[in-house]
Design goal:
The chain is α+β, with helices and mostly antiparallel strands. The protein is built from 3 helices and 7 strands. InterPro entries: NTF2-like_dom_sf, SnoaL-like.
Length: 147
């Protein structure tokens, strides 16, 4: 029997589990549940988030472009206004566009994020490229590049 060559399209069951993980993250965001939202990230010093916010002018703090480690990611979201009680949070939903397994326990996902209503400063859409690791029955983000 020939060994699998990766990447391969995610089987239907894996794709469903990945879509469920995205839905759970969106629900946590929509409910303002900081703990549930950051729980989507793998607790590891190797977990990364690309935190660049496009705008005018040069990037002032390049050390904040790539946040490394789940503690840094948790701190980033704790400082962001999106979980403040008085923040006019838009409603987030994801559309899973692409899902490949890059190994038996790792997946690459591309999802379209749609945000409706809420604070006018929040973009109405974004694209997410995520690497996720399966831990037992749960998929968790190990790398997040969303813009």
């Amino acid at each position: 029997m020939k060994a699998a060559t990766y990447p391969v399209p995610a089987p239907a069951g894996v794709r469903s589990a990945l879509a469920l993980m995205l839905d759970e993250a969106a629900t946590a965001y929509n409910d303002g549940d900081y703990e549930a939202f950051v729980a989507a990230y793998l607790p590891s010093p190797e977990t990364t988030l690309i935190a660049y916010e496009p705008g005018e002018g040069p990037v002032a703090d390049r050390g904040r472009l790539v946040l490394r480690g789940s503690d840094a990611i948790r701190a980033h979201y704790a400082e962001a206004p999106m979980f403040d009680a008085d923040f006019k949070r838009p409603t987030l939903s994801y559309d899973l566009l692409h899902a490949d397994l890059v190994s038996p326990e790792m997946a690459h996902v591309v999802a379209f994020a749609q945000l409706s209503g809420g604070d006018d400063r929040v973009p109405k859409q974004a694209i997410s490229s995520l690497i996720l690791r399966r831990e037992k029955t749960r998929w968790r983000i190990t790398h997040d590049h969303t813009h």
